[in-house]
Amino acid sequence: MRPRVHSLSFSKGRRLTRASEFERVKQVGYAQRGKLVMLGVLAVENSGACRVGFVATRRLGSAAIRNRVRRRMREIVRRHQNDLREDHWMVLVARPDAAHASYHALEDEWLRLAKRASILAF
């Protein structure tokens, strides 16, 4: 029997897309704030795999900058998706300093906030 292989893709079904979902995490969940990213977390019973939403507001800069920050955050979560606990919704909000931060600085901050929020499975 073959060992179970984890998927490396991060499909749209794994993301929060509706404004009502983002609002629910904001209103009912709790937040961990860092210098580069704010992490909102909500435990949702029987929701299956962890779902994540990404926010990059105009305060960051031009559309190109916002898209780059969103892509970096999405890649960070994709790489660590198999380490996340199930039945959670998360919202990652980029703060203004994230526009000038390196990928590794964003990843370090996200891992620190995820550990503090107890959403990592290890």
Describe the protein's architecture and organization.
With 122 residues, this protein is α+β, with helices and mostly antiparallel strands. It has one domain (15-116): Ribosomal Protein S5, domain 2, CATH 3.30.230.10. Helices cover 34% and strands 19% of the residues. It has helices at residues 19-28, 63-80, 103-116, and strands at residues 30-33, 37-43, 51-55, 88-94. A four-stranded mixed sheet has the order 1-2-4-3, with helices on both faces. Strand 3, helix 2 (63-80) and strand 4 form a beta-alpha-beta unit. The longest helix has 18 residues, at 63-80. The protein is globular and about 40 Å long. The model is unreliable at 1-5 (pLDDT under 50).
Integer-rounded radius of gyration = 14 Å
Helix share bin: 25-40%
Major sheet details: 4 strands, mixed
CATH topology: Ribosomal Protein S5, domain 2
**Annotated CATH architecture:** 2-Layer Sandwich
Task: Please give the alpha-carbon distance between the first and last residues.
Answer: 25 Å
Beta-strand residue fraction? 15-25%
Please report the first level of CATH classification, the CATH class: Alpha Beta
Please identify the structural class as seen in this structure. alpha+beta
Spatial strand order of the main sheet: 1-2-4-3
